[in-house]
Amino acid sequence: MGLVEYKQDFDEEIKTSVYGTGVSTKAAFLEAASGLLGDNELESEFQIVEYEGIGYRQHRLQLDGYVYGELSNSMSLALVDYRHDDSVVTATDIETIVKRARFFLEDIDYILSHAEESSPGYGLALDIKNNIFDIQKYKIYLFTNNSMSNRIKTLEADQIGGIPIEYHVWDIARLYELSQNLTMKEDYEIEFSEFSDKSIPCLSVTSGEDYQGYMACIPGIVLAKLYIKFGAKLLESNVRSFLQIRGKVNKGIRNTIIKEPNKFFAYNNGITCTADSIKIDSDNGTPILISCQNLQIVNGGQTTASLASALLDKKEHLEKNINDIYVPMKISVVTDENSAELVANISRYANSQNKVNEADLSANHPYHVRIEQLSKTTSAPALHGQQFGTYWYYERARGSYAQETHKATVSTKKNFEAKYPKKQKFDKTELAKLVNIFSGRPHIASAGGQKAFVHFMEDISKVWDRNPKDFGPSYFKELICYKILFRETDNVVKSSEWYGSYKANIVAYTLSKLFDIIEKRYKGKSINFNYIWKNQNITLAMRNQLKILTKFTHDYLIDDSRDVQNVTEWAKKTNCWDRFKMMPFSLEGDFIDELVLTSELIAEGPNTTEWTEDLAMIEVFKIKASLWYNLKSWNSNHYVLTQKEIDFIDCAIKINTKGWYPSAKQCIKILETLDRARSEGFPE
């Protein structure tokens, strides 16, 4: 796929998102673009904030999104320049647009005295003014769906109020490059002498063709300064995701820094790192670590972040203490050929006080594989006179939907999109948000895709380990009902006269509140998922109920009694949800009448087609041998079939390998085994 085709597909994806979710074109583009950066570990997910205004010097102010990076103490602001033509974005255009975000920062006092208090821009401005965030750096991003006249990736760094500002420009060409690569991580080299005149003793421990191991002792002041400069870039991806959930400062580590810095070496397990290469020199016969290429901390991120946080704490004045600290450091130098596999294994097996479970943070977890399979084998009912059902496409890996057809003929692409409509596509981030919402965690769903995903995987991994068979077609259908409920609630909000902002938060809190009320007051009853699945829509009574409850939710979220002025940040707080759960709300009678007993929501078991002996024999002989081999291969990864069922599949294979013919009763068992595999997600 070339750049021109990529831009066409990207713009088409934006149109589909606007149509399916009701967000603005700029918001849809920012979500897609920042999603690409997030997948490649370049930036966290942006909170959508669409603000435009005029500053006190008549400058134009603009802000389309923001995200606070807790690990790097940086505030990232996003601007979107979305064009409906193919015009080139000039250097002058870029300079003009990025200044709008800088003016936003300069004019915070003016914004607070002139903007509407309910506007998202007001809430963010107030939080920055009140130092809610510990901001050590600003990053201003410009995203555009067109190409720049020259490949400017960053503009000259700047500062405001003593805080540095970085500028980053992402045009469609750069986004295309990012989509074609697993990562676009820029190489970086660390010269340790830049951070301290203290030497770092380093001994070679083991070596081989593809791996060298070293032990070092790094001064705490060096480690802290490294983190302050490089931030989350220094942390391997699993450690970064883990710390964003757990928090970066460990109280025990901090107490040691304050009270017993000289015993830090004794108490702390140290850090485990990988590097592409290192340079060692000799100082009076002692090997000294001079530099590292692409250093990554795969274990000990909390130690590193805690030291940096203590150094930045101006109240405690801990720099002298940190100068007395030394940290054990294990370095693994790996070659390019096998670095990905080795780094993953080192991260997985490294001991730590707070274990990072790689599988729990990965879209390659068997749960996601199962959902992907079910999405391709579970047909939604045919509606509106259609002669065939459609499918809800689960995009486990970003871009897989487009990949299905990018080399296909026009007719093949048309047939694929008829079977898997674009408006019926959803990804792992959406899935995580949906499950968090309907599990009574709207505050987590409001915290952003990455955090919602990690919390979701922590829970779902435990359930999966207990019984993977719980995740069959009926489970998948319920997920789709969640998606339909979310979509229709979103439509209710955006079409309401009172709606102004915070749609995502209103939808999340509305649905969590609805399910919480049903669970507490109407035990044994449920929303009629059978109806929603059969009709791929909700009832009129439910729509009317949502109109009332969404307004109630909106009024709660923007009420002046909220603990945090910024509504977007308030919606992320546990206290926000706890308080909302306690607020009395009565459901409408028509809606209550539609609730059904949970026992009426019959979960589908395996397909129970009644095979006669004659029909079973005919059917078995019609099936190609490749299907049986595919089934055995699939089962070797998913462990669905019993040994007896595997024996029946082996019987079917013998038809072609040995010319052996199973009996009529065996044919029935063979087909029953195939039906059960299909119900468990076998994609054929």
List keywords for this structure.
6-stranded mixed sheet, 30 helices, 684 residues, 5-stranded mixed sheet, alpha+beta, 18 strands, single chain, 49% helix
pLDDT < 50 runs, ≥5 residues: 351-361
- Biggest β-sheet strands, sense, barrel: 6 strands, mixed
Average pLDDT: 84
Any idea what the radius of gyration is?
28 Å
Kindly name the structural category: alpha+beta
Q: How much β-strand is present in the residues?
A: 15-25%
What portion of residues is helical? Answer: 40-55%
Please give the alpha-carbon distance between the first and last residues: 28 Å
Approximate shape:
globular
Count all strands and give the number.
18
Strand order in space, largest sheet: 1-2-3-4-6-5
Tally of alpha and pi helices: 30
How would you portray this structure in words?
This protein has 684 residues and is α+β, with helices and mostly antiparallel strands. 49% of the residues lie in helices and 16% in strands. The chain is built from 30 helices and 18 strands. The protein has a 6-stranded mixed beta sheet. Strands 8-9-14-10-13 form a 5-stranded mixed beta sheet. Strands 7-12-11 form a 3-stranded antiparallel beta sheet, with no helix packed on it. A hairpin with a 3-residue loop joins strand 8 (202-207) and strand 9 (211-219). Helix 4 (108-114) packs across helix 5 (120-129), helix 27 crosses helix 30 and helix 29 packs across helix 30 (664-679). The chain is globular. 39% of the residues are buried. Residues 351-361 have low confidence and may be disordered.
